[in-house]
Amino acid sequence: MKVFVLNHEGKSLMPTKPQKARRLLENGKAAVVRRTPFTIQLNYKTGGAVQVITIGIDAGYAYVGFSAVTEKEELIGGDFELLKGVSERITGRRKYRSPRRSKLRHRKPGFLKDTKGKGWFAPSIKHKLDSHLRLVNLLKELMPVTKIILEVANFDIQKIKNPIIEGKEYQNGHQAGWKNVREPSENRDTLFNLGI
Fold first, then answer.
1. Domain boundaries, position 20
2. 120/175 Cα distance (integer angstroms)
3. Is residue 46's pLDDT more than 60?
4. Which of 3, 67, 122, 132 has the fewest C-beta atoms under 10 angstroms from its C-beta?
5. What CA–CA distance (Å, rounded) separates 37 from 2?
6. What are the residues whose beta carbons fall under 8 Å from the beta carbon of 24, sequence distance 6 or more?
7. How far apart are CA 21 and CA 73, in angstroms?
8. What is the DSSP secondary-structure string of 122-166?
9. 123-142 and 86-102 helices cross at what angle (nearest 10)?
10. Is the predicted pLDDT of residue 92 greater than 50, yes or no?
11. What's the chain's average pLDDT?
């Protein structure tokens, strides 16, 4: 566990060990500015020597993993859970808003301004993007970050099941021959009996 350090101007320095941070606090050379993650700010001028710090982010669907490392050690690592049920929250909010708006007879029609402009994201995707940006900004406030690596991977599930698949064989997956995409999962027993 590391303690994050800011200089007297509030700029980030290299994290330090808890023992050294405790000594600085006891001698009055630093003050606590944040409890989670624990961060201190120095009261005196120091040099600005820093090491190369790389942040790695694994962008998952429900969880986001992160790690900040130097060439020698990991400074911080962990994961956090993204908010679930964003669309249900929006639907619930719409239910409360609709009756309130229907009472306003003088209200101008809103459909002209409610069109989705360029750069619009679905609320669930926007929350995911904003969460990643908040995480990166927090880590940049705490440490002098020099490089950020974001892991984005598309998995070829059919290639994992059948390593020699290629070309038109992709069209003959486990959903081939069914009327729609839901039908294979509804007829799961039939699939197991066929050995698929």
1. 1-50
2. 32
3. yes
4. 122
5. 9
6. 30, 40, 42
7. 18
8. -HHHHHHHHHHHHHHHHHHHHS---EEEEE-----HHHHH-TT--
9. 120
10. yes
11. 82
Q: How many domains does the chain have?
A: 1
User: Is 95 domain-assigned?
Assistant: no
**CA geometry: angle 151, 79, 148, nearest 5 deg:** 40
User: Given the structure tokens 């070309």, which residue do they identify?
Assistant: 167
Query: What pLDDT is stored for residue 102 in this prediction?
Result: 66
Which pLDDT band holds residue 145 (cuts at 50, 70, 90)? Answer: very high
**Whole-number Cα distances in Å, 38 to 57, 146, 176:** 21, 21, 55
d(CA 91, CA 73): 46
Reported pTM: 0.67
Token pair listed for 88 = 């249900």
Cβ–Cβ < 8 Å for 67, 73: no
